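Appendix B, example 12.
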Amino acid sequence: MKYSHLKTLLVDDDEVVQMLVQHRLNSLGIECSLASTGTEAIEALGKKTFDFIIMDINMPGQDGIDSVRWIRELISPEKRDLPIFALTSFSTKSHTVEILNAGFNEHLPKPFDLHAFIPLLEKYFWKTVKTN
């Protein structure tokens, strides 16, 4: 499959959302690891390499905003620049500005739309997509 070389970390505290998004990403060949909190995401980043992250904003404990800031500021340099996409039901323009200012690359509305996500894969991974 066109995207079978990509690996993502999906961070969301809702198991139904995890299952649906994981299924949709797997249909493209993307390997999808799961985390339920920002803290779990940061632990996973220490153990494994990912090509991108999809992260919810509103989670218990360390939310997505705090987590992305931590990743951008404190995590190892080679992982600092990972594309991180916010997946959230917060959809106003002010929310988008806050999300992007926090360090997310893109703001994806819930429910997750696979067809709207594919252009982002092309945008961020066009070199690797074109050669595979």
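The beta strands are 7-11, 31-35, 52-55, 84-88, 106-109. The mean pLDDT is 90.
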